[in-house]
Amino acid sequence: MWRPVAASILSLALASGMFCSRAAVAEPASYPDKNIRLIVPFPAGGLVDAVARLMEPAVEKALGRPLIVDNRPAASGTLGTQAVARADADGYTLLLASSTHTVAPATSTHIPYDIEHDFSPVVVVAQTPSLFVVNPKVPATTLAEFIALAKSAPNKISYASPGTASQGHLVSLLFGKRAGIEMLHVPYRGGAPALMGIIGGEVQFGVLSKQITIPQIRAGNLRALATGGHKRDVSLPEVPTLIESGFAGFEATQWVGLLAPARTAPAIIERLNAVLNGALQDPEMVAKLATQGMTPAGGTPDDFAKLISAELKQWNEVARQANVVSDRN
Fold first, then answer.
1. For the chain, how far is it from start to end, CA to CA, in angstroms?
2. Distance (Å, rounded) from C-alpha 174 to C-alpha 176?
3. How far apart are alpha carbons 192 and 162 in whole angstroms?
4. So what's the pLDDT on residue 13?
5. Predicted local distance difference test score (pLDDT) of residue 326
6. What is the average pLDDT across 109-123?
7. Domains and CATH numbers, the chain
């Protein structure tokens, strides 16, 4: 008699939700009914953190619940990212990721999560182009002139990056391959030191973020040859894109996007996506992003999934061909 009784109890328990798994999610109709934690796996004051702070009031207003920004920058962001990968897939623990998350897996074997399969993409929140810049003393005012100069003296032109296996490093490698030129890599410890290396003439070229380069371009300390965006940047309308410069399909941008743990209910993903897309159409939000050198992105979760997949493939190929290994290995 105990087997039928046990089976009945088990059936009732399952029906009533007593047995739960990580895949279990909040009832979408009631979401959210408590505070939402947004983990930023980078330091406070940085670009990703700035976007999180801009998102905070817009999400709170739309959902009626506080969005708590939680900075966890330890271990180059891997610990904070891993915490979200392991969190319950209920929409109450989210990750604000960046393009760094598709670069790191290409060069390091010590990533404790799979950015493509351990997360559910929600939306790309904002993006900013990288800028291809040179020291003003370099005798090149266009990307074509710079390429001709580099071809005339293989491995005589040096380029700065924020560090080995950084996005700037891999973008420069890809550019060199597409352009058919060979340059010497000089890694620095961060974007600011790399910037000063170019300004000081220690190196001639670099692919760096818009945020740190624009003030120096306007001051005459740098010359911009191209922007990595899909279209010309409003801050530098005179600077052509890579595509306009003859590199079809080549873009170099930094993005910030929202991810949830894998297996989060589609209804929750859709709700968050709608909230963020709505916020990104608010002129006030657009203006505030512009102060950070960012433009609103938006789109569908599938758009974001395709971006992640494409970048993982691209950077894996670049790193493999150049045998680039992260310092963290």
1. 59
2. 5
3. 8
4. 39
5. 87
6. 96
7. 31-127+254-322 (3.40.190.150), 129-227 (3.40.190.10)
